[in-house]
Amino acid sequence: MMQLTISTGSVLTKSVLNILNVLLQQIFGSILPYQFETRQPLEPIYDFIVVGSGPGGSVVASRLSETNSRVLLLEAGGSAPPSAGVAGLTILNGANPNLFWGLKAVPRHNQGFGFVNNSIIYQQGKVMGGSTSVNAMIFSRGNRRDYDSWANMGNPGWDYDSLLPYFKKSENFRGYKTPLTAKYHGYGGPLTIEKKRYSALYARQVVEAFQELGYGVIDEMLSHQIGVAPHHTTTRDGMRVSASESFLRPVVHRVNLDIRPQSLVTKIVFNSKKRAIGVKYLRGNREYFVRVRKEVIVSAGPINTPKLLMLSGVGPRQHLSNLQIPIVASVEGVGKNLKDHNGVAGILIKVNPDTVLNANDPRSIINEFIMNRTGG
Predict the structure, then answer these.
(1) Residue limits of the Glucose-methanol-choline oxidoreductase N-terminal domain (predicted)?
(2) Considering all CA atoms of the chain, what is the largest pairwise distance in Å, rounded to the nearest integer?
């Protein structure tokens, strides 16, 4: 956690971020976020086309390319900048509009009181790795009841106990474990999870305060999640490991896997039998069309996935008709029923001296990172 004050004329400008990225590249080189771009030109047809490189798309593209299938992954954003790899600089990336979709919730009179016009900013990463490249790197699993409710709605295999082996398979856990918690973790997967390396004084005091109130210190990956927990992070030796870093970077040289960043898919194309035959996408100022033999897999996030489906003619009939979009399939649930967990910000207390690193002083953060691989 860090304190940050951004105002007109702040030193946290795009040019400062550019300088930081150059310095980080010179110091750390190959351990920084990978610059994805595979061979030119693309094939005219693929077995599978994956739209989006977030935690869904990166995993799917990696797994599909383990076979002989030809796989194309298209990502609207570019590769993550070097600063995205340093925990303490995470909040600075909020000053880089190229990394986000710039989404805002529709203004409502009963919410978003701290936002302009009551319109809540809904941050979604527009970058290789999706939001895993720009989030706070906090790693936790959903609550058991969430997964069990999916199964109870008619989706066998999506309950917590059925999913636990896959959670463990993806995980390379380096945090603190006990005989009670060890069975909930995996130890050889592609996604490294470790204990947060930087711990501010106030964070330790908060944990102690909850313990005084009778709450136990828990592992947030357990099936029960009532308690207080110093969180784990998606980092390896203090460096961010996003979905694309964990699942795509190790396999980027597979000859049957093509990855194309800065490619915005605008439409899934269907034939007369309502079968997907390819996608249209924008790259630079040009529109391209690439064909698919088997499937188009849309993993563009909770907002852009239904948006792309509706732009392609799959969605609520009346809504598509109002927008004069030709209907391929009338599916009333598309674009509806989004549920997200609420977040509550408490009272902010200024202490002296500061107990956290100051994001307005990137030098201290970088020094902390160079010396200790911490800093955020």
Answers:
(1) 301-315
(2) 68
